[in-house]
Each structure stands twice: as structure tokens, then as C-alpha cells.
Amino acid sequence: MANTREVTVGAPDDLGLREVLIDGRSVGGVWSDRELKRLLSREGVADGDPVQWLGGDATVWPDRAWMRRTTGFFVFLGLFAASCLLFHIGITDSGNALTYGGRVAGFTILVVAAVELIAAAAAVDFWETRRWRYSGVAVLLGVVIALLCGISVLLLQIGERFTAYTVIGIAIVVWSSITLFELAKCRAGKGLRIPKNIAIGVIISTLLAGANLAYSQIYVPYVTTPLIQTGADFKESNMDRGAAKLYVTVHLYVRNAGQVPVYVLGSTYWIRGESAKSNVDEGPRPEVIYDGEFVKPDGHVLNPGEEVAQDAVIEVTDPDHRKYEAITAQSEVYVIRKDRMKMTGNYEQARVEGKSLRDSLKEGDPPNPQYKFRTRISNSSEILNVTRGPQCVTVWRLGGKAPLVLVDVSPPDKRFRFDPEKPPLDQRAIERYGLSQVRGSMAQTPYPELLEKAGAIEKGVTPPPTSSPTPPKPQPPAL
Length: 479
What we know:
CATH topology of the largest domain: Immunoglobulin-like
Distance between the termini: 95 Å
CATH architecture of the largest domain: Sandwich
Structural class: alpha+beta
Number of helices: 10
Number of strands: 18
Shape: rod-shaped
Helix content: 25-40%
Radius of gyration: 36 Å
Largest sheet: 6 strands, antiparallel
Strand content: 25-35%
């Protein structure tokens, strides 16, 4: 008959799907005899038209629908979950990462998350109708990306705490490994055809562009070290004979001469009197006359080119009877890189001192601290937040004859334990966050010269005494 259609049903593929051709044109695939009848009716093929069977007759339908759909559901679920996780990280880093490289990485992760979402949609097609030729290839690519992401999370967790993301990383690696085995049995990648010369060109171009971007925008800024300068200088001195007091003005400063912004976690300065030596073999016996802080507010951000300065008035009682040869002044600041972390809490309001601090001290805390800061911080990117978990910075200041500042960065549930044998700075924080202790050069002036200058000044207005252990209110930061 003239209107008879030529129908061909192909052999079952790896999952049991049989392709249907009408007049040599593919019209889709079917899983069962019922689906074949519906397809032929939709295409206008009469019931009596002959059907040619390849690879088995009308009784050969190896599909197991419940198993196929269960497998497809779990593959879809895994790819969708991976895309949600990547979207969360990518959206956060693309807008909030502290460095250019971190934001580029965030946008890259968003692209990868979109690929995972496409792969999840392709999984539905691959385990149902297979209308898209490359659905298996898309699923295979998505699973490989998920496996690489899971391995990356676990590698970054080495040396870190066991967190919820560690469990997620393990689950992704196990799921993707099983899924890859299943996709290999189904020969999901058989539809991929890429000319060798095009593939090589794309790979080489991508590697060159990626290497250039990584070097210029990620590596170079990362290895650039902050250049922080601090120091102290003696200025005028005044004598109050009636009260038998000598007042010395000391200029203190800290400036950022580099290209990296920093947080000033703590600052300290001390004024010492160098006693005369009674024996040539004896070393000097410096006496701490005064110590204090000079950078306000606490946690001040010091941007490149910015300087903070303060003049402090130091009081020396009974100056005529002091056996000093010289007076020395020195400053010290503790800074941490702003491009590797940021304060998520109010550092300035986190200061604890006095009775509140004494009541909160526990075993292992530094002895007799003057104050303590503790606040949460965030890493430079969400990827690091995921792998490192929540972190807090803790700053202690110890007074006495040897003023000292201790800095520690650790998880919120971990207490810092004071160990006098260890350095005052957290070594891991030095490597991760660029934590550094910057000590200025020592300024020294002969004590007799100070007395001479103070005595030569006409009696008049005398600087107000510094009776409390707190230095005068600092001047606003110099811009």
C-alpha cells in the first residue's frame, strides 16, 4: 500500500532502551511494548503496518523500570546537592571574597555549579527518554566534577578539625565513585566526539591563561608582605620642682609603608631608665618607668600610606635622685593581614579587663593579664571557611616589668593555654593570616641632658601629671 510506513525497532541498549525509526528517521526510544504502541499511534502509524525488529523480537524488553528510575533519582539527587553547595560557595565568594583572586574563583565556582545543575537535568533525560544525544556525557562530566570537588574538600581538611563538611566531602567521593562505575557500565560517554586538534588547542590555551591569571592576581598579592613601621622619639621635657617631678613627652607612631592593609590587634610601648653600671662585667639594669598603648581604636585598620601617631607625657618622680644614665623608649605593634581575614565581631567592644577579666580566668590562662580581646573572624574566602570552620582571634596583654602581647587564632571551642616556653604569637596564624610582631628601633636620650633641658625652661605652665596607668587620650589617626 502507498501509505504504509516502514517501522524499525533497534536492539536494546545498555539500560534496555530500544530506538524506534520510522521511514529511516529516529522518533525516540521506548522501554516497553506499551510505550512502543503509544509512540506509533502518536506518529500516525496504523496498527497493521509491518515492524522490523533488530536484536530481539517484541518479547525482548530487558528494562527494569524501578531499578532504572531509582538509579536515576540518586544520581539526580547527588548532582543537585553538589550544585547547591557550589552555588552557596560561589555566590558568597564572588561578592565577598577579600582578594581579586578569591572573587575570580567565586565566579568560576558559579560556572561549575551551573554545569552540575545541567548535569542533574541531563540525568533525568538519560534515565528516562534519552532524547538528548549527549545527556550521558553531561552526566559523566558532572559526576567527575563532583568527585574532584569532594577530593579537594578532603585534601583541604588535612590538618583541620573534623567538621560537617568533612562528612559531606566523604559522602560526595563515595557517591561519585559508585556513580562513575554505573556510568561506565552504561557506556555514558560513547556519544562524545571531539577532534584531537581542537581539544589540544583548548587545553593549552586554558592552561596558559589560567597560569598567567594565577601568577599575576593570586600568587603575587599573596606573597607580598606588609611593610609596617613603628617607632618612638623623645621631644620636650619639663620640670616641676615643687612636686619633684619630671615630665617627658614621647612621640609614638605606626605607619603602613607597604601595599597590604592590616588590622592593628594590639600596641604597646615602654619607657625604661638605664641605670649606671657599678661593674664593667655587669649588664645594664633597665627599670620600666611606664608602659601603655598608643593605637586607638582597638582593631584599627591601617591602610597603605596611613599613619597613626600619639604624643604621650611620661612622669618621672623624684628626678634629681634617679641614678639613670639614659632614658630609652620603644614601641611594638601586632598586626594581621586584612586581605586574609576580616573581623565578623565588634573587636573594639570585645575588650575585657578589670574584675570581669579576673573572674573569667581559668587554668591555663596567662597570669595577671591587663586585658583580653576575643572575637570571631572570617577567612578570606568561603572555601576556607568551609574547610577550616569557625575561627576566633584572642589577644592578651601582660604587664609588669616585661610587657607582652599574646595572640592566638583558634576555633571558638578551643581555649588558649599559656606556655611561657613558646613564642607569644600563634605560628599557624603567622603562616595563614600574616600575623606579625613589629618592634620599632629603640630611641635613647641621656638622662642628664633631659634634666638640663627641663631646668633651662622657664617656670610656667607644667604639663598635667600622668597619675593613672592609662596614657593620655590619643590624637585622631593622621591621614
